[in-house]
Amino acid sequence: MDKKVTIVGAGNVGATAAQRVFDKGFADVVLVDIVDGLAAGKALDMLESGPVIGSDASVIGTQDYELTAGSDVVVITSGIARKPGMSRDDLLLTNMKIISSVVSEVAPRSPEAIILVVTNPLDAMAQKALEVSNFKKEKVVGMAGILDTARFSAFLSEELNVSVESIEAYVLGGHGDTMVPVVGSTTIGGISVSELIDKDRLEEIVQRTRDGGAEIVNLLKTGSAFYAPSAAIVQMVESIIFDKKQILPCTALLEGEYGINGLFVGVPVKLGASGIEEIIEFSLTASELEALKASAASVEELVKIMESNS
Fold it and tell me: Which of 10, 100, 143, 205 could form a disulfide with 39 if both were Cys (CB 3.0 to 4.6 A apart)?
């Protein structure tokens, strides 16, 4: 293989993303985790599935960052989940240290890589990754909007009993309570969703989208989502590796777009081999733009906390 994807963090999200990339066979995979044997064991299990699924890709599990050198894409999923009694600031500062450590290891070894951040709170972690890596802004991108949009589309598909392929939707903004499902431009087979679902029911679906992660956590009791997040990661990885230039909702550094400056926020981007090739600005209603700016303000709060604790 002439393409290499490193995934840092061999938990459910990272390991499932590694499996999906290996199954598709378009790149060699390096899975990294600090827990002794965890990445190596999962990677060996994946490798042994190769003859069954027909994948000739390599997959290696390791604690050694040297094996990540020369990666085309580095996906960072490592970090802790918020635990009972833990404040948002505690989570932020703990994962900030983890992201800083990981990026300081991978960036010098893969200076041409695109860094794809998945760790929460995602928008703030992407900001930290850019700072530590000293990469160009186009080469650091966060995964959230694809996942949130997928949830929104799945719920609309269920509601209307139509194929997900007939739904055109975007969820923008920060990954969390302030995300912005863009109802005004959501269409089903070219028809505005507001013509097909009444306002109150549509608002319920929007709220369920915002609560999508929490709904799964409440059902699982001891874990969080990983099938949909890993699928979203791989869509981004493929768009980069194959230079597809797909328009995808991703977390990107804005410098004036949508009236937001100096913050990572979820917006539509053109994603290709060089990373974020263009930030797409499309028309939002006044209320949607206001909500997007409020979402950015929430990200800014987290960034200020990080700055004061750096």
Answer: 10
